[in-house]
Amino acid sequence: MNTLHLPPAISRPHPDPASRPGRPLSGRCHPHSRWLHRLAALLLVVLVAAAPGGAVAAAAVPRTAAAGGGWVNPVTSFPGRPVVVRDFDPPARRWLAGHRGVDVAAAPGQPIYAAGAGTVRFAGFVALTPTVSIRHPGGIITTYQPVKAAVAAGQPVSAGQLIGQLSEPVTVWPGLSWGARLDGVYINPVHLLDRPPIRLKTRPTFIPGS
């Protein structure tokens, strides 16, 4: 009797479980998937901040140093140096003549602003000249003449806040007479604008899934 020989069965390789769609290896999320979730959440935060509504909110914040905690130009309420028509020229001795501040270009009736945050030290007249002075942190006092005060002594003010209006000039030099003292010593007030602003520490933003 002839024996029928069948060809050997072709063995098919078992598919790798990792290649089967829809079947995770375990119940835990893959590390790459977790990283992608965090990245997606971060992108969502960035897109919301860049949306038109976010741009409007950012534009509503005043561009004065009140938000940054620094110093501003007292005739504009914005950062940047003023136009000085008469420079700081301190005397060699306290009793000698000199110019203990700067004269800034400004017109009568123009609004005058606090150059930095502090407390109004004086608002009134000095030798018939309307005067406002502000005490700032760090032993700094700034003075503004001739300024008809819109604030009162003891009132807290922020950088860029309106403190009064420029009055008619009382000397041959027109404009705002702006002075500053540090621990009782006269300094050039324009140099205050070069001081770094105070930075407030902010809390980190929470990102879901982090």
In short, what is this structure?
This protein is of the alpha+beta class and 210 residues long.
Characteristics:
single chain; 210 residues; alpha+beta; Glucose Permease (Domain IIA); 2 domains; three-stranded antiparallel beta sheet; 11 strands; M23ase_b-sheet_dom; Dup_hybrid_motif; metalloendopeptidase activity
How would you describe what is shown here?
The protein is an alpha+beta fold. It has two domains: 16-60; 66-194, Glucose Permease (Domain IIA). The protein is 15% helix and 25% strand. The protein is built from three helices and eleven strands; from the N terminus they run αααβββββββββββ. The protein has helices at residues 31-49, 52-59, 65-68, and strands at 84-86, 101-104, 111-113, 118-126, 129-136, 140-145, 147-149, 156-157, 162-166, 176-182, 185-187. The strands form two sheets. Strands 1, 2, 4, 5, 6, 8, 10 and 11 form an eight-stranded antiparallel sheet that branches. The N and C termini lie far apart (77 Å). The model is unreliable at 9-15, 17-27, 41-68 and 197-206 (pLDDT under 50).
